[in-house]
TrEMBL record:
GO terms, molecular function: 2-alkenal reductase [NAD(P)H] activity
Coiled coil start-end: none
Pfam families named in the record: ADH_N_2, ADH_zinc_N
Keyword Methyltransferase: no
EC number: 1.3.1.74
Domain Enoyl reductase (ER): 19-342
Keywords: Oxidoreductase
SMART domains named among the record's database cross-references: PKS_ER
Entry-linked Gene3D superfamilies: Medium-chain alcohol dehydrogenases, catalytic domain, NAD(P)-binding Rossmann-like Domain
Protein name: Alcohol dehydrogenase zinc-binding domain protein
Length: 344
């Protein structure tokens, strides 16, 4: 095994926040390098994903969800791309190979071999694996399949999922694509850069035009498909705008997760179920990815679109693990467009 540094860094939870997390709720700790056990792959991380859903884990998690809650003293975790330092001989992995795994927020990780997936050349940039192209593509082909000419509404259109979903909907044949976001500046970018035909803006204050009224103007003939990353009043507006037989993929619940007065573990919203019945709306919670290991089924198609320039991967790279807590704060605050990754 190559010589490792005497100590390595990882981000730990220092204290549970009362409300939304801030940089002071985290600490950067030095610890001896991890010692891989039998069947573990030792990985030097190169990139990891900064994702707002960490707020849910800080709030105690959700029963039945695949990830455990975080407690003070715990190291954070999340999707990462790393370089193999050493691996058991029966894995087929060699030093220098890139792998995907879920022990980010640290410089080195000992990862069970069955939780590592080799990164091949299906995508032009391995960092794309840390984005949400897979979620967006799967939602729009399996959970709420787009048909040619459909009008598609994507809530949270400037986020990791939304910044890909609008483009992918267009490539799958959508006739009109509308997104929502939290600022006029981002709304302009959705239209100028990401192929959206129109954008509605989540307002603040008594003079803000309701989302439902903005959506009625942006999609006057109604919507056929919803990719919902937000919930709340935006899901209500989508139900009001839905055409008969509309398909809804419920991917996230940011309205609840990012509410300062809530725990981040619920996404409460009041909906008119009569509208679901009368309009025969099909609503499905996102069912996860079909291919967690190996070459995903979406990668060839998405990789082709990226190489041809038909699809872009909006993302921000933040240099250095020491900047990760601030990056999380900025993601929760909505300062960035697309996926945010820390580059080590």
């Amino acid at each position: 095994m190559p010589t490792l540094p005497e100590s390595v860094r990882e981000i730990r939870l220092a204290a549970l926040p009362d409300g939304l997390p801030k940089p002071e709720h985290f600490t950067i700790e030095r610890t001896p390098p991890p010692v891989p056990g039998d069947g573990d792959v030792l990985v030097r991380n190169r990139y990891f994903h900064v994702f707002p859903a960490l707020r849910t884990l800080l709030g105690g998690g959700v029963p039945g969800a695949p990830f455990p809650p975080l407690r003070p003293g715990d190291a954070l975790f999340g999707a990462a791309i790393g370089e193999v330092v050493s691996a058991p001989p029966d894995t087929g992995l060699q030093p220098g190979d890139l792998v995907r795994h879920f022990l980010g927020w640290r410089e080195y990780a000992a990862v069970p071999a069955d939780q590592c997936a080799p990164v091949d050349d299906a995508l032009p940039d391995p960092v794309v694996h840390l984005g949400s192209a897979a979620i967006a593509y799967t939602a729009l082909t399996r959970d709420a399949p787009v048909r040619r000419g459909d009008t598609v509404f994507v809530t949270g259109g400037a986020g990791g999922v939304g910044s890909m979903a609008g483009q992918i909907a267009r490539l799958l044949g959508a006739g009109r694509v509308v997104g929502s976001t939290g600022s006029p500046a981002k709304a302009q970018r959705l239209v100028a850069e990401l192929g959206y035909d129109a954008a509605v803006v989540r307002g603040a204050g008594p003079d803000a035009e309701p989302i439902a009224e903005q959506l009625a103007k942006a999609a006057p003939d109604g919507i056929d498909v919803l990719v919902d990353n937000v919930g709340g009043e935006q899901l209500q507006a989508a139900i009001g705008a839905a055409r008969t037989g509309a398909r809804f993929a419920i991917v996230g619940a940011l309205a609840g997760q990012m509410a300062p007065g809530l725990s981040g573990t619920t996404g409460p919203v009041e909906i008119d179920t009569f509208q679901l019945i009368v309009k025969r709306i099909g609503m499905r919670g996102f069912a996860g990815l079909d291919d967690a290991q190996g070459r995903p089924s979406w990668a060839e198609r998405v990789g082709g679109w990226l190489r041809s320039g038909e699809l872009t991967f909006p993302h921000v790279r933040v240099a250095g693990i020491e900047r990760a807590p601030q990056a999380l704060h900025e993601v929760i605050d909505g300062r960035h467009l697309g996926t945010v990754v820390v580059e080590l």
